[in-house]
Structure to design on (244 residues):
């Protein structure tokens, strides 16, 4: 997700040389804090305040900026090593099973909308959500086609020939050129997928009322944190089993 840039930064901007995993671990701490704030905003003692819309909007802006910062730092790091973002080691094996082009599938937002107790959508909101959903599915298919072409490139005769000749009579310049083209294509696909993820999230938020948005953001944070806990437990159990 991505959000407005005018809100205060909840995390200090990291130096570009710092390992992305270090940034991500700190980002997760703030994710838990925002999750708690979102749930508190939805508690019975807060949900009927007269100034709820203003309070909700301030929190929404902070959470959206939190997601935006993640994608900003990800973009910087991906330009240094795009391959790692297609199977990032800072995510658990369980979390990576949900990955699509380096992150969650954009249409996943609509699943969250269905599961977050937002049951009071107006007819106009429903129409707008369905419109975004149709456009998103079309763009997802286009990116699926792009990734299929990239995978075909890996098995293409020219690249395979270069790989077979590598270490024999292959010119390193030839292999470097082929590798550069492949990594560039993967970076473009990753950035396109991240842009789509952000566009869908912002589009849905613009349709929803502040309280509806808080419910969806709370559901997103809760699912993310639960998936992480389950993944860590799974990895720990697997490691324990392997050593016995």
């Amino acid at each position: 997700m991505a959000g407005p840039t005018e809100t205060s930064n909840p995390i200090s901007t990291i130096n570009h040389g710092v390992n992305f995993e270090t940034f991500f671990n700190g980002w997760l701490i703030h994710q838990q804090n925002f999750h708690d704030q979102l749930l508190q905003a939805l508690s019975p003692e807060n949900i009927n305040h007269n100034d709820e819309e203003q309070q909700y909007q301030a929190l929404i802006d902070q959470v959206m900026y939190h997601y935006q910062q993640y994608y900003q730092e990800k973009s910087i790091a991906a330009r240094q090593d795009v391959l790692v973002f297609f199977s990032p080691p800072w995510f658990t094996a369980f979390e990576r099973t949900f990955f699509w082009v380096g992150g969650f599938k954009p249409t996943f937002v609509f699943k969250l909308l269905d599961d977050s107790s937002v049951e009071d959508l107006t007819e106009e909101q429903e129409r707008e959500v369905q419109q975004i959903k149709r456009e998103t599915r079309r763009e997802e298919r286009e990116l699926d086609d792009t990734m299929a072409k990239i995978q075909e490139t890996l098995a293409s005769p020219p690249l395979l020939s270069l790989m077979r000749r590598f270490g024999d009579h292959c010119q390193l310049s030839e292999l470097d050129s082929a590798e550069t083209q492949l990594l560039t294509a993967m970076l473009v696909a990753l950035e396109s997928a991240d842009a789509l993820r952000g566009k869908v999230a912002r589009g849905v938020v613009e349709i929803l009322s502040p309280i509806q948005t808080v419910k969806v953001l709370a559901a997103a944070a809760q699912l993310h944190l639960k998936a992480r806990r389950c993944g860590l437990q799974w990895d720990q159990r697997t490691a324990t089993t392997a050593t016995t």
Observations:
- Residues 172-207 form the longest helix (36 residues).
- The mean pLDDT is 84.
- The chain is about 70% helix and 0% strand.
